[in-house]
Every structure is written in structure tokens, then in C-alpha cells.
Amino acid sequence: MPPWPDENRPLPYPAWNTPLPGANPTFLPPLNVAANAAVAVPVATGAAPLPRSALQISGAAWVAKFPTSRSLSDLTPTFSSAVTSFIAAITAAGGSVTISATYRPPERAYLMHYAWAIAKDGTAPGSVPAMTGVDIDWAHLDASGKSDQKAALKAAADMVSGYGMAHSAVLVSRHTQKRAIDMTISGVVGKSINDASGKATAIKSLKDLNAVGKSYGVVKLVSDPPHWSDDGH
User: Which of 63, 93, 212, 219 could form a disulfide with 232 if both were Cys (CB 3.0 to 4.6 A apart)?
Assistant: First the structure.
């Protein structure tokens, strides 16, 4: 696992961390909080509006919410089965596997994405779209509905720091779709590992694992050392 947590990598953007074709995460329209101090934040289309008093201001406390999973059971059944078989082959050969990430909740991706947008890209805190189930006040509104821009910017920066982000997280990825795993594999060089057909493959370097993993349906993203998915993205 690279020194950054939660699947983030330094620039340039790794291929897996670009928006997926057809990605359409469900968010509510942006809320212009400054235009109407009395407006409430909606939590779902057609749902009763959530009063501002029920929101929690942004900041480091949000980092612990919606944690990234390390469990294989949180992957799709098909991919979980493929990864389980691949890992079993690795361990049978005397290797070891450390899992750092499987499923990333969309809520966490949302928090990371917009924390970065506010702290690094100049996005106005009051323009961030709401997401169902994430009752966050990005703008740090006071009783009159005025945003404390300085506090909002610092809070977003604290979140970016807490997440250990090196750049923005995309809203939809193979991790949010339960179709990816970040894992560190060791102790396999110089050994032989059986692929899905039972054929033994000599592992002279870690890249020799790529073909073995693919035979199980676990495809390596070469540009990202710990990242595997069901299609290489």
C-alpha cells in the first residue's frame, strides 16, 4: 500500500481514479444557502427537508464516518469469490496477503471529493450538492444563514489532511462499486502458484502474478501497485 490511505495516489491521476463511463451518482441539486437564510437542506427527493439544526458542520470528525472496508464479504459475490480463490492460491504457495481496502462507501467518496474541491479547487462551500444520508453543513452557517467562509475552508482542509489525500477522489470507482481490492502481496517470488486451471506458474517477480490473478478474474492495474479489480480499472 502506498503511503497515502484510502486509494489516493499522487498526480498524475491513476487510471482507476478517473470517472467511469456512464457514472451517475445520485446527488440532490446544489443548495444556495446564502440566497435564503431560512431554507432547509433536503435529504432526499420528495423527502421532508432537514432543518439546519440537524446538520453537523464539516471538519475532521467526518473522517471516521463511512469507513472503507477491508472485508472480502463487502465485494460483489462474483468478485469476492474470485479474490478468495486467488488469495487461497497465494497462501497455498507460501505467500501472504495484506488487504488495505475493498469497498469504499459512496458517502465517503462524496466527503473526500468535496472536501478537496473546497480546500484545493476553490469550490464555494454553499454550492456543494447535498447527498442523501450525509447530513453535513459544508458552509458553516450561522443562525442567520450566513456562511463562515474561513471556518469552512479550514474544516475542508482538515478533512483532506485527515483522509491523507494527495489529490481528489472520484465519486464513482470500482471501489465504490464493490469491484476492487487494494492488497499487498509478499513472499511469493521464487515460488510457484497455481492459476485457476491448476497450472503452476513460476513467480520470478511480482508482475508474474498478473496473469495468475487474471485467470481467477482478478485483474491488475499495473500503474497502481496494490490495486486489483474485476476489469483492471
Answer: 219
